[in-house]
Design a protein that fits this description.
The protein is of the alpha+beta class and about 160 residues long. It has a single domain, classed as tt1808, chain A, CATH 3.90.1570.10. The chain is built from three helices and twelve strands; from the N terminus they run ββαβββββαβββββα. It has a six-stranded mixed sheet with strand order 3-6-7-8-9-10. It has a two-stranded antiparallel sheet with strand order 1-2.
């Protein structure tokens, strides 16, 4: 079982509850799939789960999945697996912080509904590109080898 961890959200140290067993299984599947595609992509580097990523002096997050550019170490894809008992920081606060950062890609993975919201950066902030569920595929153009069937991501 994972341990509780701390994030700095809008200047406030916030203790996050330990992720549950299903959360960790989803995280492990996602990391495995991304790691396999990044192995053939020298421009990106996958960080270990919940590695601290400092966005600003007032924000230090620990995304469930963080992909950075190899050349600069800049975050370009984050995935947050929503914790049902502690969802406000992920779905509201952290999403707003990623938007301020102009994060190119954000995946909000919600085990409550077994779906994935895919966001892309735009000049106007994060734009919802789709909500994926069931037999739909999660893909990323910048990772041509990456493909995950949503129901397999959430399987028990």
């Amino acid at each position: 079982m994972s341990l509780a961890y701390e994030e700095l959200l809008e200047g406030t140290p916030t203790v996050r509850q330990p992720p549950g067993e299903r959360h960790e299984r989803i995280c492990e599947r996602l990391h495995g799939a991304v790691a396999a595609s990044v192995a053939k992509n020298p421009t990106a580097r996958l960080l270990p789960r919940r590695t601290e990523v400092v966005l600003s002096p007032r924000a230090a997050l620990r995304p469930d999945l963080a992909l950075v550019t190899a050349a600069t170490g800049k975050l370009w894809l984050a995935a947050e697996i929503v914790n049902a008992g502690d969802h406000h920081p992920d779905t509201v606060i952290k999403k707003a912080l990623y938007e301020e950062l102009r994060l190119p890609r954000l995946w909000m993975i919600d085990p409550r509904y077994d779906n994935v919201e895919v966001y892309h950066a735009s000049p106007f902030g994060l734009v919802l590109k789709g909500i994926l569920a069931g037999s739909e595929l999660l893909t990323e153009n910048l990772l041509p080898e990456f493909r995950v069937v949503i129901q397999e991501l959430f399987s028990v």
